[in-house]
Protein 1
Amino acid sequence: MYGLHVGLRGLSSSIDEQIRGKERIVAAQKEAIVDEARENRVRELQVRELDQKIELLVKAKISLKEVLATTDPFLNEQHHTHATKESGMTPEELNTYGKFISFLRHEPEALALMTRKIENTNAGRFIEILIFYIFGDHYDRIEENLLLSVCQRVLKHEFEECEQRGSFMRGNSTFSNLLTQYARRPHGISLLRSCLSPVFEKLLSDGKNNEVVPSKVYVQYVNEYEQRTGESLAWDKDANEEDILKKQEIASLIETRVQSVIFYANTVLENIFASVSRIPFGIRWICATLWSMSKDRWGDITAKERYSLVGGFIFLRFIGPALVTPSAMGLLDQKPGPNVQRTLVLIQKIIQNLSNGVLFGSKETAMAPFNAYLVECEPKLHNFFDELVDVGTLEERIQMDKFLALGSTEKILTFRMNDVFFLHALFLALSADSKNETFVPIRELLPNLRSEVSRKDNVHIQLPVSFRKPTDGRIDKFGEVEQSFDELKSQLISLLRTVSPLDHGGADETVASLEAYLAALRCTAIERGERGVSVEIAMILEQSSALLEADGWEEFSKGLFLNQGHSEFVEEGSATPLAVISELLQQHVHDREGLVLRMAREEEMLQEVLHEIGQQRKMLVRRIDSYRAYLDNVRKESYKKKSDKKSRRTAVNSVKYSHSQLEEKGVIISSSMAGDVKKHLMFEFVRQSEGGYFEVRASYRGLSVMKMELNFEDLLERQHQNKTQLEIRDIVLNVNKVLFLLNKKFVLEE
């Protein structure tokens, strides 16, 4: 104890200031990363929407006005900011919704239920809210583990429901989408950039054609020869693959390209294998859970099949999309050219078969030359998987989190107002059928459900969210224990820093505990007549004894030791408060300079992540700027054409058809209305002020009998999904014919 006392008195205040400074910097960096990641997510979604809208514009399926109606607000923003417009929600509503979000955060079963039951049409939105808003602080350990708790429950349910192991996680379900989006958070994107960027740079500078399919290579070779020489090549253009490969020029060219693709694929894999220690805990934990749960679900599953499951996540869901669509992931600011894109697809095919443990066969004979490489690389892959899944359990981390959260009461989370209403409606719909009694109190607490507001009114709201489960009263006792512990620690440190140590000698070896050392220190103070010091030590010893008897101390102390990596103390039973403080202070004294170095490394790592996210932001902004320039040009051209017209005409805003006319045109497939009613039924299609919306008004002998709304984009989406019929009340419409009519009468007329 003498060494601890001397160490505390000799602590350098400059190091303390360095630690506090590093803590402030790291906290600011983490906050910036969370904000930037959320901003980039918004940009990604907007760019995706712009891609689709402009593609439709190019195909003349929607008008410029309709594109601008939904894209102008975003294109005119220089950067995304939280809205300052009032939400119209009362403080009581905000507080209640804060409790609702707190409940969801600490009730993984509720969020897991939502994930499992939600319809596919709403799945993308729900997962975005879950990952970027409910658990949006990607560098908060507690939030990370709460989110993984949701993933754990969903994974368990998916394994229980899956009968055919070969189909597990192969579809594009909400569950697989959740895991994919989780892996694409800032930690994952940073790792992908470091592993894949060198390959992208080399491919872009090279730009060579690496096509290996014989028939394609053959045609390209003939075309290039004739274009280069101006002479015809006397080869059979309908030659089969066997004859093609007999051509020495083609066989040699394919062999060169095979080696080139292997070089790039090997570079990708070696970069990933070397980065296993940098792969975020959550991604490794998901892999480990797939590994363990698959064995629990199917006892006879082979190691090869388990490797394939792990590979299905880490390679197909995480690395694969970044490899073949780097621009969509913000890793490149533009889509690669055809040669580079083809090489990336070939690399992904190799990695996919490697992770599945399958050689290329008769379905892809052109890829057979890569089989030797797959066989050679398989042992390295298995070693990588073994190291990847060797990670701690989530239960251990959650046990520590109970105590990490004790010193915190609440934080403010920012949500879009409609997202909160969306979660409210979803929770009410899905929890109604649940037998989980913990859902009942929060259902009763929630206010009346509101309808979602328009885009312009969808402002951001701030909700106070608790770090603790709202209904868990036992946590409050832990809070009191922690407060008492912190006060005791502060008093002890203050005392030891101001009071002279005991004389160092052989007797010090017998003073093994801090309690004994303080008792000896008190005796010395009494002998010296230092009454104030004596009283202060007596109070510290008394507070320690009282805290030892406090409800919740034993579990609290075990949690602190677990958090500090001292599991041996946990096995021995409850330690006294002063014993816990002694252990923590000795570690603090001996490790303070090391702490500064570790925090400096963390600061450097976070700075790299910030840089990566900044690069992603720049790429997204450049794409948005290019869209803005394109739409500006379209605007000008559109205005110019209208100005050049000799006769102006008013844009069509409505058009009328009789029931029989719509039947003749094939717009109405069938209807259950009486024949006499059909004869006198008129339909008026009216363009709405909001782009892409049309109101259909049905009238019988001039009397309004029915109104229905059509959305141009919804119709296009139905067409894309091959849903050719749309049933509205008593009428079945032909989606393709409705689109043709709207295009002809409203879009093309302009």
Protein 2
Amino acid sequence: IFTSFTLPRRPRLLTLHSLFTKSIHDDERRMDHRYLSWQDVAKRRTLLDFSSSLTSSSFEGDEEVEPSSVLEYGRFQLGLFLSGVFIVALYVYAEFLHHVRMKRMHNGGYNKGLAEDSIEMRMAGTKKFDVLLEGGGGGGGGGGNTPDGSMISNSMQDMSDEDKKRSFANFTDSFGRQNSQSGNMSDAVGASPSTGDNGNVKFTNIGAMRILQGDADAIERARLILRSWAELFFILFVFYVCDRTNTFPERTKSYSRDFFIAIFVTLAAYGCYQTLRQSKTSAPLNREQTEEWKGWMQVLFLLYHYFKASEIYNAIRIFIAAYVWMTGFGNFSYYHVRKDFSVGRFSQMMWRLNFFVLFVCIALRNDYVLYYICPMHTLFTLFVYFSLLVFKEHNTSTNMIVAKMVILIVLVYVIWEVPGVFTVLFKPFEWLLSYTDPKKPDVNPMHEWFFRSGLDRYVWIYGMVCAFVHPKYEAFVRWVDEKPTKEKTVIQGLILTVNTIAAYWWYTTYYVLPKLEYNVVHPYTSWIPITIFIIFRNFSLTMRSYFIHIFCECGKITLETYISQFHIWLSSSVPNGQPGMLLGLFPEEYPVLNFMLCTAIYVGISQRIFMLTNDLKVACVPNANNRLLSLHAYFGVAWFIGMGIAGSALL
């Protein structure tokens, strides 16, 4: 399999290369943040350089270097391949065990649907590795209740509770597998998830360890989770084949303004006429509205990349700022209202942001910052979380919240605008946050992270401010709605007039600037169009009460579509390469058909990645048992170490 991949790779160990090869030429770099201000960097950098496509060649200045004929792989990359083979084999074995169990039950005269229900009841939910260790509700016993009632099929929902218990008891008595691990799990089953910690859980008892020990019952119980892992590894394999081999040809980007506009207008028109739905609430910035907002921005963002629509560069910058604004708005709303600073919930958030991108970085040997949205949102999420965690008992005080926001503004100013501070602060994380574009090897490897994170360094704080004043804004719009028709019309007309004037002023003053000049003012002005849009979108009850469902669905998978576009929609061919070409499934004479087919596959895979990420989050990141969560973390670290060792053995 390895020898069939003919594309050369540069010698480099994944994204951790700086741990082993420290640069000694920083003084020769063209971008040194110890001496350059933010304005200097912004003037020299564009969003994404699609001006010329990447090929299998690497570049040193203007001189083209012939690629090496030797295939080179990272140790973690090979270890990930072995892990994928192992997981797929385990899943096949789990399906075999399940099939054998069903066949035995069928031969024993049991109703097939009832037998399926009994197995699911005994397993107490197959969406988690360790639901029995988390306890609660008779999860591992014969009580006949599952943590999630949706796991019981229709054949059993029609039965009485007594019939269910009798059927379950008959099943477990006949096959004697219910208590096969009672000696290992007796201490854990009775634990209550409300305790948040279970000191009786042992590392050798968690589901993953029991699977490695060959426990057939644990393997069968984890059948659906193993299926999710197998699907994930298959998707990574597809990424590799599409973007790192010559299996599919590359196509050149071309931009047609008419075609670009036609695609978006057609999608928007279809959404308005066919998927317009009423929101569950008429509150401003409700969940459906923000998902819709993310969705239509993501569509334009992706089309911008696909067609190289450089004329809307400034608009794309605003869209990315709006995503970052939502990071501050959403996280502040959750932590300030619910006051849930639990380790489990925080870990699930980090999983959502970084799980898939971590595996993609390993499989494709790309740097983390190539997918800069992930580290940027992670950083600002950490800022929001820890700013509210400190003195959290005083978060109900307006003065405390204002003080925290002022401190955050000062902190951001010092980090990004005082020369040298950024370099010193992020130096320990250079192994994780450095990025070297193969077309620009002489640029400081921390420049990309400095530029990306700096462009939207303030807007997430503005998101926190908006979340804090959101109750007052909601009260204001409801007050307007309750006014008599004449007064309401006058107030809404005044709001629209002022907002339109502000939009025109911002457009003529800032938006029309050339992109390099716009980069300089963007960090300080991006909040203006965001505020204008929020006011337009929520100025009336009708506007707040409806949303376009198709854009809402697109908004749910923005992270997955962002990551996947690099490898199964666009093409870069080399590690860390910017996607300057298109994936080709049709001959070059059929660009529209190629766009349609690639887009259908790409969106479908992104949707599936979203579902897999959530399924595996439930399985691997329990939010109600800190002890179990820590054991899963230990297992994950041990597994990655094992991947490195196994990969080294193959090099």
Protein 3
Amino acid sequence: FETRVGRSFGCISQPLEGMTSGMARVLAAVVLLAVLLPVSSLFEDQVGVNDFIVKNIGGITASVFHPDTQKRRVLVGTEVGAVASLDVKTGELLWRQMLGGEERVDVLRLLGNQVATLSGGGRRLSLWDERSGSLLWDRMMGSVPEGGSMAAAGADVAFLPDQNNDSIDDIAVLHGSDVSLVSGDSGEVLWTVAAAKGDVVFSTLVANDGMAQSSITVVGASPTGTLVQITTLAGLDGSEIKSPGVVSRVSGAAREFCTEHTVLSAGAMACLGKGTSSTVSLLDLKSGAAHTFNAGDVAGSAAAGNVKASLPARGGGISSLALVFEAKKLATLSEVKKEGEVWRASFRHEVPFSPDHRLVASQDKNGVELWTVAGAEEIVDEEAYGEPEGLLKVFLVPVTPGSSPQKFSITSYSRRLNGQVVDVQPCPYVRKDGTHGLRALVVTATKAAVMVQQEFVSWHNDGALAEVVAASFVDIPVLPPAHDEMFQRTGGNPFTQLVRRLAADVTDLVQAPVQLGKRLQAKGTERRERLKWDSEGVSLRHDMEGDRFGFKKVAVALTAPGMLYGIHTATGQIIWRRNLADTMTPSVEGIKLFVTRETSAPASFGMLEVLVLGRNTENDLGMLWWINPLTGLQTGKQQLKQRCLHATLMPIVLEEHTKVVMLVLERAQREDETDEQYEERKHGDFEVRVIPDLMEAHRMMEKRIKSIFFYLVDRNGLTGFTVSAKKPDPKVIIGEDGELEYFRDEIGSNQYDNMQEGDDVREFWAHEAWSVVFPEGEDVVGIAPHSAEESIKAAGRVLGNRAVLLKYINVNLVAIATETSGGAG
């Protein structure tokens, strides 16, 4: 959950051929001149020291703004178990705490200077100090029900005024079918009640602290929507107070009268019924009195005919009602008030709504309820090759008579980078002219948290960096210096090479004052010149001038949500971002990345390349992307026809310094075979593919075929494979022009499906050679092989005390960690 970058170095020296003692003196003079030039260096005690640390928080699952706007804080809980406080204005991480075991934060509540979180599917309750982030206490809340988490059976938290006379507010906890009261001072459980009846699943806790006796109301419904339970418990001992209890029938509604429900802070429960037309039932939490009406009665322009509605997400402390009419692509907002013994809804506004929008309610400091409708839309920019860019539309709608919705268009929001809106946490404020200002935390599909204010993006937090699955380094390139001639093995006269080197050093000395003046001027004014290889303008925003010693690098990080980042190792700043998902493949998962071109010829200077392997989550098929690691520019993309099982970098280098990657794929399904036939056949040999899929790569791969071995890891074992090559058997087909075309007998993922007779194309196949299967109940939880992609090919590393730390005992060994469960002891 932290991005760390440190340093290591190695030195390789070798004598120059033909060096005499006289030449050595000349070389010493050149070295003396060279030390007068500024160089980059690294002291021994700097090796292994972090250059920077970026603390990440992950995708946000719960958030709340501090009610005191002067404090400018937003508190968040995330899916990787982070609880953090962020500055609303700058996005600065004020503090962060990590829960153990990557526990997802399900619920987060704030009262005064205390933050309560419920995590791990409702299992762990924690209390934090809001100012410092210190953990006050935590405790486990019972066991997980069989077959799932407590979150599926209800999880909520509410603060209740002090019940055990220790002058500190206590905490009511809904966990599963139980309700508990926990001391806010010590975390001691004061009482627990098994409150659920029948198959009711609880969803919400309501703290009734305005009554003569503090109490807790717990609300839920059965999965079928035929039962509702509203139970009120005394805060002192958990005894049941007079309340509606189980409600199985509501007048005027269908039997399944509560397929969806929500609790209104005014003291009512809204139930959405199932039928030819949706019905809404408002139940009083104290008496159980109900009022039922058709959703079309508050549907505005959608009222014509039978209408289907749904209940959207909502914020806490809200008494108004929102209904979504998907067929009409709009949502309606209604004010709910009590008339006599029953609650009634009055239509106020309608707003555009689609499945990609989010609708959440909040209150301003005056208690005015506002609904925020947010959704990202596409704008096609012709100059960006038709890729969708940014636009975030937000409606701010007060639920008061005579009010008008306000519309905000945030053009600086990039939908191409952030994807769709997943959630929004609004924090509207009242401006001097009496209108409402927009401030909202937007959570996106790429795990980003985007703070918007009015029509601008204030800051952006990359939560995906908490889920990095692969990373590698690329040197920022340097133009070949003129005095490299001395080290070129061209067979020339060594004395001539030394003279050229000396002339180049003298030229550097003459130009040093001029270059130093330019750099100082650029540093003072923050002006940069765009480098020749920079097609995206990253060199205008970051220092992308390479150094001859390779200290300046770009760390390329691939994340599980499909976001790819370029990070400057000298500053820790994100140079570029790229969302691998697009309109054609909206949901992808990152798996591996390989630096396939880490240097380039002078003619293609700066044209470096990384190959990214991912998975299309909609069909589970493999995907490939080619990215320039310096700029983030996507230069290629390919959807594979099979699922990718394994990928590794091969010790094969082609022209233009391109390295070869080997992919192991499931066998593709033929057009003439059934699913049953394919299922039986695909578990045999696996197809092996080389990238780039070129003739030269095929020839070099075939030469090394006898020394290629790999293994696949299963849940309870490993299987080893060898690789073979064969010339494919072509199938002759007469083309439209009458010419013979040669196709492979079995069409695979190889792009050379249409090939010419006599080409050196080869098919590569993987065959099982050995297997290791552990006993039943013993699962593989970790594996540590020797990395074939390491930069320094040495068996050890010299430490500061001159000792040698070995990387491995044997390059062919692999360490495996297993875990046994279900056995005795």
